[in-house]
Amino acid sequence: MTPVASPCPFCNPDPDRVLFEDGLVRVLSDGFPVSPGHTLVVPVRHVASFFALTPGEQAAMLAALDKAKCWVDTRHRPDGYNVGLNDGPAAGQTVLHCHVHLIPRYAGDRPDPRGGVRWVLPEKAAYWDRDDP
Predict the structure, then answer these.
(1) Quick check: is 44 in a domain?
(2) Cα distance between residue 49 and residue 62, in whole Å
(3) Nearest C-alpha neighbor of 19 from the set 65, 78, 88
(4) Range(s) of the domain holding residue 105
(5) pLDDT value at residue 1
(6) Cβ neighbours of 21 (radius 10 Å)
(7) CA–CA separation, 114 vs 89, rounded Å?
(8) CATH classification of the domain holding 91
């Protein structure tokens, strides 16, 4: 899959998707949610990598992540969360504007949710079933 280059869906998002924003960060409902309440935390400044953000932007992202969790908690009451950041095309980043996924999880949404984000590499995910150290 080719990374999305232009126009950036996070620089000028559909206003209906914007949950809240400040000068550094905006929180959006995901355009292709994997579960009810799936949200994105995005820096306002167009920067591809989380590691290229200023310390202030990184702190604002984490504060907004906490605020987004509270927002999702009150509206969807999930049983858990996955928090994900795809940094670079090799990691699966398709929109080259930094964004953190807040994915609500619900009891029973997977038969066995163990391993969570480890399933990005399925052959390594179920470490509890492997014999090697």
Answers:
(1) yes
(2) 15
(3) 65
(4) 15-129
(5) 45
(6) 14
(7) 26
(8) 3.30.428.10
27, 100 Cβ separation under 8 angstroms: no
Give CA–CA dist 133/130, Å, rounded. Answer: 8
46 as an active site residue: the answer is no
- Looking at the structure of the chain, the number of domains it has is 1
The per-residue pLDDT string of the chain (133 residues; one tens digit each, 9 = 90 and over) reads 445 456 899 999 999 999 999 999 999 999 999 999 999 999 999 999 999 999 999 999 999 999 999 999 999 999 999 999 999 999 999 999 999 999 999 999 999 988 888 777 778 777 777 765 5
Identify which of 32, 33, 40, 25 has the alpha carbon closest to the alpha carbon of residue 85.
40
> Residue 112 carries which DSSP code?
-
Q: Give the pair of three-digit tokens for residue 46.
A: 């167009």
Q: Which residues contact 115 (CB under 8 A, 6 or more apart)?
A: 125, 126, 127
Out of 38, 97, 99, 101, the active site residue is 99
**The overall pTM is greater than 0.85:** yes
The amino acid occupying position 76 is H
CA-based nearest residue to 27, from 53, 62, 54, 2: 62
pLDDT value for 6: 60
